[in-house]
Specification:
28% helix, three-stranded antiparallel sheet, three-stranded mixed sheet, 117 residues, alpha+beta
């Protein structure tokens, strides 16, 4: 159910950056470690965006796989069940897969600006 609060934050971020223009697309990067269910997030995004300039926008989600690096030997791997280094059993640090960020938004062009170019 945390997808509801994430959807609210995504809509708020898009509205802040849209400068009173209709939002057409929101591009989102979500790391696998965030345990977000993409269909659930899209469902809540549609609900939370109602009656805003984001209503009807397409939510594009890129799922970022987990990538780790060993602090001891610098070996990199994509863990399945193991977060310890498969080479030396050292502790791993997360390089990727913990993201939750609005990468970009696409907004409707200002009709007045188009004619003045």
């Amino acid at each position: 159910m945390h997808e509801l609060s994430i959807a609210g934050a995504v809509v708020d971020t898009a509205l802040r950056h849209a400068e009173d223009r209709r939002v057409l697309v929101v591009n989102l990067r979500v790391g696998q470690l965030r345990q977000v269910i993409p269909d659930s997030l899209a469902f809540y995004f549609d609900i939370v965006s109602r009656d805003t300039l984001v209503e009807g926008a397409r939510l594009e989600q890129v799922v970022v796989p987990v990538r780790m690096r060993c602090e001891a030997c610098a070996h990199e791997w994509e863990p399945e069940l193991m977060f310890r280094c498969p080479e030396c059993s050292g502790a791993g640090e997360v390089l990727a897969g913990d993201e939750l960020e609005v990468d970009s938004i696409e907004v409707e062009e200002d009709k007045e600006c188009i004619g003045s170019r």
